[in-house]
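Input:
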Amino acid sequence: MMNKERFLSELKSGLSGLSEADAQEQILFYSEMIDDRMEEGMTEEEAVAAIGDANVIAAQTTARIVSAEPEEKTGAPKRSRRPWEIVLIVLGFPVWFPLLAAAAVVVLSLFIVLWALILSLWAVEVSLCVSVPGAVALAAVYFMRTNALVALMALGAGAVLAGLSIFGAFGCLAATKGAWRLTKSAVGKCGSMFGGKGR
Amino acid sequence: MDAQLKRGLLDVCVLAAIKGEDSYGYRIIKDLKPYIALSESTLYTVLKRLENAGMLTVRTAEHDGRLRKYYRITDVGLRRLEDFKNEWKEVISIYQYVAEGGA
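Output:
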């Protein structure tokens, strides 16, 4: 059986990882808890036993306070920058600005390349589409010249081209959609990075 | 129970326990006992979190020759309780949909 004094001193040594003020606050909290139980008629030992093991409590609260810190930060609204941070940002301008600008240019050029690719895909697709009536017209010409075999070949080529262009259209559409989504999300991220209210 | 959900429930339970009148640690535990098991160390973290969020204030008063801390709900805390009630109307309707096995 443990008395209040021993419980609190064990708790205190268990909380040595915390600041003096934090530890003292907890000791007062548990001391009050024990007193309130005793006031209700429990003996000192019973009241201490009801609270639990001092070492376990110390380990739990230390872990909770340490793990709660990053958590609270993500949950809390964006804090405003501290003065020294602003000073650092301003002083660091010659360093971070060229780096940021270079990164932005790289990203921008990647997107230009992406869209150029999409454009050339569509160019191929359009030329495929155009060549279908061309092949059919050729077949008609050869047919009129009574060169049936060549006309048939041209007609066959036309059918193949038509198939390819239909197939290609789906590919182009999918690629464009993908590129559009990528661009949109990139623009959104840029916006939230600078504006802070994006998304 | 999901940790996040449990934490939210603990917060509103403690707020509800001090809503009517100021209360102190041991009394909060006793008042909540029929609804939710709350250990001292858990209560401590909940009180700390609510205080940091501005949902309650703490004052120390003398009681029977010793000091005791009393917790009082703030307007922010009262608003949290109102929000909770509204949120849970939605949760309950979702629960009914899920419990009936969906469409």
